[in-house]
Amino acid sequence: MTVETQYVGPDAVQALVHYAQAQGLDRLTLISDDRTWPALGEAVHSALSGVGADVQLALLEGEEVIADGERVLEIMAPGNQNDRTFLAVGAGTITDLTRFVSHRLARPFISLPTAPSADAFTSANAPMVVNRFKRTLDAQEPMAVFADMNVLCAAPSDMIAAGVGDILGKYTALADWRLGALLWDEEIDQSVMDTMYRVLHNVSGQLDAIGRREAVGIAELMRGLLDSGTAMAHWVNSRPASGSEHHLSHYWEMILLQQGRPAALHGAKVGVGAVLMARSYQNLREISVDEVRARLERTPRAQPDEERIRIRAGYGALAEQVIAEHAEALEMLPVLSVRMRTRLVDHWEDVRAIAEDVPPPEEIAAQLRKVGGPTHPADLGFTALEIDDALRYAHYMRSRLTVRWVERALGLL
Ligand SMILES: [Zn+2]
């Protein structure tokens, strides 16, 4: 399925009503929480009820809504939803919950973003918390998105900054993808790549306006997030939008979940992750091919057994799960690392050219600062040890080649 209609403008509620009438959608379930109900949910409910639609409500109460089994149960509890269209009124978490439940009920859903906070609105996967562990589950894209500019411009500033962080994370995500193609024969798609670089260019050109919450900037950010999500949904996986900076974010998120600490915004973690990974790329730029040869000579190759030991050191109770998810990649490691080592020498100038396209860490930090976003993981409450551990172990979060594996091969990790 693809997103049929995408509205970003001043009167999303009216646009939604027209769309629902044109599509004959008169039985709906609206999902929102304590914050998104007054911001938009209530207006959506009264407008649709006003034209005679039957709108059932699922208002998720409480301080922190996370995408877990309890919330799924809460949404599904009323039953009798087999002929309803779902409306997700909220940011990432509400959208993921709605995307998951509606998909499992084989019903479509419509997204009504309340903040330009992440690129998940138009994506097809739902990151859900299962046993205190975040897992990416198959779900679906919305049939339509109606983003209201007045609501988005009034969104909490940390959520706007998080959206910018999720976009700026593409600098390192795209560089990682290009490394994967160069060193590991990963498939790449130039048009997806072009879309993502265009989004980066457009959003980074509007940071002052976004910082001032001007409609022109916020609209560009929202469109960028929607385009990024769509590019991800149409590619085989999240590769175009998620690399080593996301792995850091996932690692920190795992720590917070395991310890029952309050969540930090996805895009905020991604933004500070991008600053750290930009430093890695900066380091690569300064290495000569002779140094690459010398480093490969003295750095032992990655071996499955040693990697399993490292994963156990970094993941505690979750280690076996991480190892199981990487079973195939771990076994392939000796073969892949031989190939990668040869390519690193043969194509070192290409690696450096990829690294050149990542701005220096100070520049990404300055961009985040323009929208009032955090620039260092300590700003999000992570300790020096948690930052260190993420740098040491986060690349095991996904079986994907990133700048971290290149640093690993060169003994820089
Ligand atoms: Zn993201």
Q: Regarding CATH, which class of the largest domain?
A: Mainly Alpha
Q: Sketch the topology as an H/E string, one letter per element.
A: EHEHEHEHEEEEHHHHHHHHHHHHHHHH
CATH topology of the largest domain: Dehydroquinate synthase-like, alpha domain
Cα separation of the termini: 41 Å
What is the number of beta strands? 8
Please mark out the parts with pLDDT under 50 across 5 or more consecutive residues, or reply none: none
The total domain count is 2
Beta-strand percent range:
5-15%
Q: Describe the main β-sheet briefly.
A: 6 strands, parallel
- Give the CATH H-level superfamily of the largest domain: Dehydroquinate synthase-like - alpha domain
Can you tell me the overall shape? globular
Rg value: 22 Å
Q: Based on helices, strands and strand pairing, what is the structural class?
A: alpha/beta
Strand order of the largest sheet: 1-8-5-4-2-3
What is the average of the pLDDT values?
94
Tally of DSSP helical segments: 20
Q: Please estimate the helix content.
A: 55-70%
